[in-house]
């Protein structure tokens, strides 16, 4: 009977073509990696079922189908003499023929879910596949299926290790529908995908509307010309025309713009006059025509009031509304130039004429008095200069130059600065006898002169310093103004351990010497010099030191931002390392100088919004810091070294390309970089926050491998390409 059963099964397998694929006869198939399917009609159905749920092997006996990814103990490489599968064995040892399904890759990850969806990011969660085999890692892909952006809608892709089951994906486009999928990676190939459709939230429009152009006004009405605006962050749903009474000097709050009636009721000096369709934007519009546009009343204007007109771009999407506004048409450099009134029926009264006559007389008297006073003062100054000693303060003694610092974040009430007075009050004056400049040790060349090392002698101590020699007597007025602007930055910066501090100034008849702290090398050279194979490491800089340097830079940058100073050129070359290995942020203001005839090209560290023509803001420095952090971890490697031309960088960033996660840093550390590269600047961390985060990571270095410089198989240093980072031309 047993022999008859064997012959029947042997015939059945040959007929169905499985015998040639027989792996062999196995017993004790592992139950923890197997699944049993009942009521399967034939082995053809069994192989399809097991293959469909991504298992490698199948066995079939008496209507019971078993699927497995691992084999048990092989009895023979031919067919079994007897069969017993799962609970059909009546306590006997399980034994069965095993065949391949033809499937080698893992199944889809389980429990895919997506949360924390913002305008540019989301967090993806998943679990390992049900049919688990050896998995190397996971790939998360974001495929845009519908977007309002004019930027190339490329597929974004992130790769994570096999122990990662959640992560935040960023650099997504706003108001865009994405197909988010996850699949595993194995040695045999990519596993099956699981996906979910999401839609990112609406962000503020990325382009401000153009200022309305005022064509004419008759006192009660004003004719304006409007222009359309593109929006890559969502739809252009409508345009709003805002009327502002400039005489009231009321701060414009974009979140409290109401209709005319509501504005009157709430005491606001601005209101929405009209909301028009996008297709009507290129037509002329009359403000104050007394008509209704949508829910808004376009009230007549008051002829005696000064007005300003703003254009608002409105974007509606999925229940969200975002609005941005243009600058006011009635303002020019902060002074109202639009005075809407009608004087056709109003003559000049006698009182007005008398008042104007008196005012003109007073101004004439004051003008003549001022000229006389100036001539007397000038005569005294000339006589005093002739009595000055050899150490006279010629350098900055000329007429006060009032300058506005381009690297400084402007405040509303900016008062021009008398830099000469600031130098006297805030900066130490060093005598030329205390200072010795080393003419043979040239550190670099700046815009206004050479930079050498030197020694400062005080309190019986010699201190090495940096000396910037400026022959300002030979400068024209514009150059001196520029120099004072950059000197003003150093004055305003104050003192901090992690910036290149200003020590003082020393003046002679010919020049002024700006004395700063000395640092032996820049961070770029330090990182490249740390590339060394020592005791199983590929760096002689420890992981702890790398975090210390990054934290020090964050502290220095936080200090600059608290002083309302933007850096704009943050990279490894902009950071100096002191003799006691303290990082000092430099290369801003007058502390900017370079060696030889090559100057840095900062394209690879520049924030995306700057490429789009937006103004550099503090969070733009945060973007640059993440590139610098990658540069530290890569031991001086060139960012985006696979992109040969700097001209291609802006386009690649627009497409979502970011610096890759290096193999020897973990997901949490890389996530900090991604946070700094968020498309919306407000979503990037501040430098104070980065100090706390990196301090926490530094404390976990010994227990969790946030960063490891241990040598691994096939290790290669990230390439350093000088020509991609430096421009060959005269320094300044």
Describe this structure in words.
With 732 residues, the chain is of the alpha+beta class. The protein folds into six domains: 2-100; 110-199, Immunoglobulin-like; 213-336, Immunoglobulin-like (Sandwich); 348-387; 419-517, Phosphorylase Kinase, domain 1, CATH 3.30.200; 522-728, Orthogonal Bundle (Transferase(Phosphotransferase), domain 1).
Q: What is the overall number of helices?
A: 14
Q: Give the helix level as a range of percent.
A: 10-25%
Roughly how many Å apart are the termini? 100 Å
- Poorly predicted regions are 1-17, 330-353, 382-406, 408-417
Structural class, by secondary structure, is alpha+beta
Count of the separate structural domains:
6
The chain-level mean pLDDT equals 80
Query: What is the CATH homology-level superfamily of the largest domain?
Result: Transferase(Phosphotransferase) domain 1
- CATH arch. level architecture of the largest domain: Orthogonal Bundle
Largest sheet, in brief, is:
6 strands, antiparallel
Gyration radius, rounded: 37 Å
* CATH topology descriptor of the largest domain: Transferase(Phosphotransferase), domain 1
The first-level CATH class of the largest domain is given as: Mainly Alpha
What percent strand?
A: 25-35%
Report the principal-axis shape. Answer: flat
